Prior knowledge:
Order of helices and strands: EHEHEEEHHHHHHEEHEEEEEEEHHH
Bound molecules: flavin-adenine dinucleotide
Shape: globular
Number of helices: 12
Structural class: alpha+beta
Strand order of the largest sheet: 4-5-10-6-7
Amino acid sequence: MKPARFRYARASTLAEAIALLAEAPGEAKVLAGGQSLVPMLNMRLVRPAVLVDITRVRELTGITPAGESGLRVGALTRHAELVASPLVRERAPLLAEAARHVGHAAIRNQGTLGGSLAHADPAAELPAALLALDARVLVTGPRGPRELTADTFFRGLLTTALEGDEILGAVEIPARPPGWGFAEIARRPGDFALAGVVVVLGSPRAPLSPPTGEGPRVVGFGVGDRPLRLRGAERLLAGVTIDPGTAARAGAAVGSDCDPPSDVHGSADYRRHLATVLTERALLQAAARLAGAAR
Ligand code: FAD
């Protein structure tokens, strides 16, 4: 299919992009890498009157340090840049690892961090990683800038706290956690995950061993209508040393927090089972890194 007719407008600055969105209230869409939007346009799942191309807006680019060990990443940062950036690998290696699993090379060369977050596919890797990292999402619109926690940004299936006239500008990631793990299962490399789990343990300020309640974040993707904090596992892990036994118990605790879909690729029960196994794997990875950081 071909998209319905739309007007195309390219913005050169953030102010211009916001003004263009305001000209067509509720009828304009932002175009970034186009990797999700263009298929949706072609299938006529969305029919905006105006497409506002933000790809030339320099204010939305850049990967810069934030504070002593945090990171600020502009919305237009492409997935491939996240994978390759030495600063991301040093300060947020979980984000680089998550980006490596997004689609194929061609998708990673075009798709942007902001686009992935704004699109909010529940099986997407980057929203889950940012939720686990306690990232802040910086948004701008005609009413000025807003800052949201990743926890409040994702509202449901393809739904976020972004208003139609707002633009996601950047994300800020507080500090590199010493322990992190990432595990997903997809039918083929490059496919969306059937299910995945991201784990973050401790923070540089928290005692490293045993990991305390400050740190544990267990986030599932592909197992609900948005990236989901698997709080049963988080509660079970608070204050305990992670070994194969606690990892298995935490894995067994995630089922009740998941509400996965059933489709032609797998039943809800199968995805729940994957979440259990992947939690265990991601936890053991994170614990090994935590132990390495403490040495
Ligand atoms: P676009 O397609 O340009 O936009 C997506 C949505 O976000 C639109 O609604 C748009 O209006 C909005 N938007 C974009 N940027 C902003 C902004 N700065 N502010 C406000 N709104 C904004 N994704 C995964 O996570 N994992 C995968 O494994 C995966 N596999 C894929 C495989 C294929 C074959 C394809 C085609 C896509 C796949 N994707 C996957 C989806 C895709 O990679 C991401 O969703 C995509 O990168 C989104 O970024 P984009 O820049 O292309 O956004």
